[in-house]
Amino acid sequence: MPTTAVAPLTIQDAEALVTAAQRAAEAAGIAVSVTVLDAGGHLLAFRRDDRAVLISGETSTRKAYTALQLDAPTADLVDAVQPGGLFHTLPTALDRPLLFIAGGVPVHRDGRLIGALGVGGGAPEQDHAFATAAVTKLA
Asked: Each residue's pLDDT tens digit in the chain (139 positions)?
């Protein structure tokens, strides 16, 4: 059964995602860090506003990684890691740290997962909105 090749996330795509997320954050007056990972979880682009809190660089990367690994927005996964939730033990079960805070979104092309975007620095709902806005612009 033949499969159709899907173009991977390019550096141009990654830069467009970073720019769109940062512009959305700037319009809201929020300083953020933005991370873009390819489908293999490798860093394609990263930018931290020099006014953003330092930890936002780490949180944006972990959010992107979590969204990529579970192919879901991190905002949709918050309840799953609560006691009794489906993924309650997952954050401590893996070597690579996951972060179940809103702000990570998978990136799809033609229905296929090609990468993920993470935003950190604002309130979780703000980070999610900035990331979603950027991914929507790319599509």
From this structure: 556 788 999 999 999 999 999 999 999 999 999 999 999 999 999 999 999 999 999 999 999 999 999 999 999 988 887 888 777 666 666 666 888 899 999 999 999 999 999 999 999 999 999 999 999 998 8
Alpha helices in the chain, H assignment, sequence order:
11-27, 55-70, 90-93, 124-138
The residue count of the chain comes to 139
Q: Which of 67, 61, 56, 60 is nearest to 115 (CA)?
A: 67
Strands 112-120 and 104-109, bridge-based pairing:
antiparallel
Q: Token match 């990654």: residue?
A: 14
**Does the reported pTM lie above 0.85?**
yes
Tokens of 63: 């959010």
Other residues' Cβ atoms within 10 Å of the Cβ of residue 139: 7
End-to-end alpha carbon distance in the chain: 27
The first and second tokens of residue 34, run together, are: 């933005």
Place of tokens 């996964």: 77
